């Protein structure tokens, strides 16, 4: 098949969404498909404000660049990221171009806003009030883009079952139009595990993620505080952008701050080394798309203490290869962490199961699922039922 992939981000294999797209593109090419790519450098941007850009400029940018590429080549599948591709999807259908139009979401924004509004702490948003108000105002027309892209696209590819369920419930979309596509893991994280010579690894807990409301930093801090008070051997690591380290220490308080080290973003080689020196990953997000962080940690043999959201509830079997909790349950997460630190044999068993589970998530598998979904959409559009 001939694919066109369009994204409004730089082509950066180390970035989350872009890195996933690049890995999927490479896997499709390995399976013999032709894939064209369009990235941010082909869509000049004049409006600097992110939300205003998405509202007023990005839909036309997507539509224009898709039209330009379709003028010189015919594609079986056009995949465009973000709901702001709704205008491109609408024009594709109105012009009756060949091929199917697929929208790709790396996290459904209306579902994210709903989760943060219900569970998040306002204290984590330190922006000036006028910016908070502007965000709430712009959220209304921006959410309309989500509804429109579902309406005009032939199919929608989502990160997780949670996003899939949200769209079914809120928009009444046909199941056949949606694909919850689990990502693959960078083979680098699936390389052989080192011998565990330092048993203190099982007393070390790490958190890796941005400092923002959906990631539940107040829950992360509360868990670290509780474990620091209950377990003398505990050591913690909090990885997030350095600019937020003062916020982290403020949340942790004086006792936990002495036991938890803050680390900045780092290359994947350093992150893998850091994972290999820890036994537990703390990941209590209120919302995720399908985070690669917890999968990478599982691949390195860490026991994940996560929440029953998105990719985690797909990949983690509670009590077998990790543990799942309700959002905001810092007490339950901390209690489980202390039990694991006091029972390294149990943690090691979970470590083995976590590694084996992570090995099932490959980009080859994701590419096959995406290609199969695309073929079904094409048959449906052409009126072929089997």
Describe the overall structure.
The protein has about 375 residues and is an alpha/beta fold. It is built from 14 helices and 12 strands. It has helices at about 15-30, 50-70, 85-95, 110-120, 130-150, 160-170, 215-230, 245-260, 270-275, 290-300, 310-315, 330-340, 345-360, 365-380; strands spanning about 1-5, 35-40, 75-80, 100-105, 155-160, 180, 205-210, 235-240, 260-265, 280-285, 305, 320-325. α10 links the parallel β10 (about 280-285) and β11 (about 305). The two termini are about 20 Å apart. The mean pLDDT is about 90.
Largest sheet report: 6 strands, parallel
SSE sequence, one letter per element: EHEHEHEHHEHEEHEHEHEHEHEHHH
Helix share of residues? 40-55%
Q: Provide the gyration radius in Å.
A: 22 Å
* Helix count from the secondary structure assignment: 14
Average residue-wise pLDDT? 92
Class by SSE composition: alpha/beta
Low-confidence stretches: none
Give the number of DSSP strands: 12
Strand content: 5-15%
* Major beta sheet, strand line-up: 2-1-3-4-5-6
Distance between the first and last residues' Cα = 18 Å
Molecular shape: globular
């Amino acid at each position: 098949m001939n694919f066109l992939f369009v994204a409004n981000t730089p082509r950066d294999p180390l970035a989350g969404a872009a890195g996933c797209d690049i890995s999927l593109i490479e896997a499709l090419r390995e399976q013999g498909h032709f894939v064209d790519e369009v990235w941010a450098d082909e869509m000049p941007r004049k409006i600097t404000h992110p939300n205003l850009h998405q509202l007023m400029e990005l839909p036309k940018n997507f539509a224009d660049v898709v039209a330009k590429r379709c003028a010189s080549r015919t594609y079986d599948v056009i995949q465009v990221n973000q709901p702001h591709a709704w205008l491109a999807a609408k024009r594709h259908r109105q012009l009756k171009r060949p091929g199917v139009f697929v929208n790709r979401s790396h996290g459904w924004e209306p579902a994210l806003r709903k989760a943060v509004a219900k569970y998040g702490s306002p204290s984590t948003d330190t922006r000036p009030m006028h910016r908070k108000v502007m965000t709430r105002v712009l959220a209304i027309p921006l959410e309309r883009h989500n509804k429109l892209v579902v309406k005009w696209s032939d199919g929608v590819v989502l990160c997780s079952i949670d996003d899939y369920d949200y769209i079914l419930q809120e928009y009444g979309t046909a199941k056949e139009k949606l694909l919850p596509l689990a990502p693959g893991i960078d083979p680098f994280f699936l390389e052989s595990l080192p011998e565990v010579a330092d048993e203190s690894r099982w007393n070390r807990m790490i958190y890796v993620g941005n400092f923002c409301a959906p990631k539940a930093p107040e829950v992360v801090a509360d868990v670290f505080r509780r474990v620091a008070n209950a377990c003398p051997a505990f050591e913690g690591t909090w990885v997030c952008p350095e600019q937020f380290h003062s916020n982290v220490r403020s949340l942790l308080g004086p006792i936990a701050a002495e036991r938890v080290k803050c680390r900045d973003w780092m290359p994947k080689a350093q992150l893998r080394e850091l994972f290999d020196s820890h036994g537990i990953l703390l990941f209590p997000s209120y919302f995720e798309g399908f985070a690669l962080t917890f999968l990478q940690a599982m691949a390195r043999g860490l026991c994940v203490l996560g929440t029953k959201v998105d990719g985690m509830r797909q990949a983690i079997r509670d009590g077998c290869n990790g543990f799942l909790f309700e959002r905001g349950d810092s007490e339950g997460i901390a209690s489980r962490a202390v039990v694991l630190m006091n029972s390294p044999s149990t943690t090691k068993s979970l470590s083995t199961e976590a590694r084996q589970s992570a090995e099932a998530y490959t980009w080859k598998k994701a590419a096959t699922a995406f290609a199969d979904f695309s073929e079904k959409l094409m048959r449906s559009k052409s009126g072929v039922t089997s």
